[in-house]
Request: fold
Amino acid sequence: MSITPLQPIAGLLIRRVFKWVMLAIIAFSSLQAWLNYRAIEKNFDMTINDVVQTHLPLLSLAIWDIEPQAIQKQIGLLVKNSPIIYAHIRASTGQQFEGGRRELRSNGQILQFDIPAQTEGTAALGVLELVIDRSRLREELLRNFIVVFIEVLVLAIFILIALVAVLRQDLQRPMRQLADFVKNLQANQISTPLALDLPPGHAYNEIDLVIDGFRTMQESIQKHISQQDQLVLQRTEQLENAMSTLEKLSITDGLTACYNRLLFNQRMPTEMQRATRYVRELSVLFCDIDFFKRVNDSYGHAVGDKVLVSFANCIKDNLRSDSDWVVRYGGEEFVVVLPETSLIAAVEVAERMRAAVEQALVVPLADGTMLQITASFGVAQKKPIDTLENFMQRADQALYVAKNHGRNRVQAADGRVTLREIRDRAS
Amino acid sequence: MLSRNVARTGVVEVVMGGYRLLHQLVLCLLLAMPACVSAMTVAFINPGKSDEIFWLTASHSMSAAAHSLGIRLEVLYAQRDHLQVVQLARQLAARTPLQRPEYVILSNDYGVAAEAIRILDGAGIKTFLAFSGIRDPQERQRIGLPRTKYPGWLGSLEPLTAESGYLTARALIARGNAEHWQDPEGRLHLLVIAGDRSTTTSLKRNEGMRRAVVEAGNVVIDQEIYGEWARAKAEEQSQWLYQRYPQARLIWSGNDLMAFGAMNSWRLRGGKPGVDAHFSAINTSDEALTALQSGSISALAGGHFIAGAFALVMLYDYHNGKDFSQEGLEQERSMSILFSRDDARRFKQLFGDLDFDRVDFRKFSRVLHPASTDYTFNFRALLSAGKERK
Reply:
């Protein structure tokens, strides 16, 4: 699994939101500040005008009454108004008064007002000159902008905090839990119920949809798996059956259900090795149905087949143990392998088989007559130096001898003709 | 009374009442008689500044009166701070009974007398208003009539203030007419430098001046301004006035200092007071009298400073059993005169260094002169009284 760095959606969302919020803040603050600026500018001019209109009658009175102190006081009050940085009065009689900061005169806007007379229609009593500091206006604007900016910023921060909290609690944590759950889910525990640690008073949302979907998926997977298991079991059984059938088919002869030559070639060397390694005796019987060709030719293949099957059954019936096995070696030739059996015991087994065949193998024919079947047996015991070929060859030669000596008989290899002879030699 | 004497001499430690009485008797034998009989104690809360010529004159004349009547007088200056008047009244009331004055004389400048009287009355100190009495209806409501709401407030004595304003204005207008300074319409133009907008004295003097203007019939007041009794302010203001009213040649002032200010600025413009413009003044300062003699001031009235001294005379009589209630509790009497050059010379001779000790104020007391039917409080009497002693 390649490790890709985790980039939480919450983080991404917050970054995006933050970016837009910041843009919005700047936009709104600027707009607000601009609107305020307009208002303030208007206000500013109105304020100055108001201040002047308030002071003019008083100034007029003070000048008329020749109250220099009162005039000076009025100037003091005028320059107390923050935008007015300098005030100068020239009375019509020539007296001058000033207040504020003279040195700032150059960097301000100069306004002039006539100081009206006390009685209508007479000449003005003097001229009031004010120097207005417009930079105050800019300061006011900046202050305003900062205030609006801070307001909107605080609001945005609260929104972001709320967003983060919601994302954390309702998205990130459940998602992580979900991911961890899924990561740690074992195939054999697929049915483990998914339970997330959701906050109390939590409302049903998309996460729950995901969880529900996941549960549904779990259930269907669970169902599917159990179905699959069943299916696999079934299939395996079928397969095993097929396999065993196939195996049977591949190592048995279809007609007689005896092993075939393929199996013999596979198994025989093993048997021989075992006999050699453990110094056990091993014998084989080479059997051949007498005059089988004639039966086949005279009565047809169906009868031939019947004869073959009956013969094989006969042979099988007379096996002593599981370790003995029969092979259809050729058309009507069978080989019986007898592990841990001496030549004499093998001859006895062969004899019993021959007798059984002679007694039991009667094939009813279509014309109602019974066909008597016999078989000849060649017996050989493995010698230490034997290869498979010459071992089988000796059994084959013994069979050949039995055939030549009149059939329906058992012939041991190495010239032993009959069972009796063999017994005699043993005794 | 007795214990006060003991305390003031500071000679004797009082142990028992009997001893005290004995000591008192011994002391009476040793000390001069008048002091023993009843040395009245009076405090004067002077509303003016201690270097202000009018109020200094008032204090000095009162001291002389106190001296001749055997009264112990203490003068406290409020330095033209009306809050200070109340403050001083509080301090007097807070004194130990032995150190308190029996009487306090105050002037109702700035309308603070009612409050001061309330404080002093609470402390059992008797009060008397001199120079400036109760005029304002609101004040009247607060304080009531003498010896009613505040039993210790005995009464008041005011100079007929309007008189000096009237006399000077009338003299000034007469000079203007004599000089033929009428404009083409036959009107004389007058500039008025008044004292202030609120004090009784100021209002009264203006009232007198207006009465003269109305009587004359051909006089126009170009403008009336307020110089706050001050020389410097009047000097500055008059400059404006001369620029505003180039035709004005008659300048009436509410006191002498403002007249000097206006004269000074006239001189600075190249004018000559008493020649190309006429100035009037009120008060009896040395400078004013000199200016009258030299001719730079054309009309001078004064003498009302004597109200304080006469108030002491009335209190002296009251203290010694001759109440002034029959003549009226709140009296207004003519005190000032229009000074001739001769009067000025005589005044300076008599009271040149503000020394009024040549005046024997006892002659005005009705206790000491049971035959007299009424007080003769006017300045002429003072000038003549001084003359007798020369």
Observations:
- Chain A touches chain B at residues 64-68, 91, 93-95 (CB under 8 Å).
- Residues 378 and 399 of chain A are 4 Å apart (CA to CA).
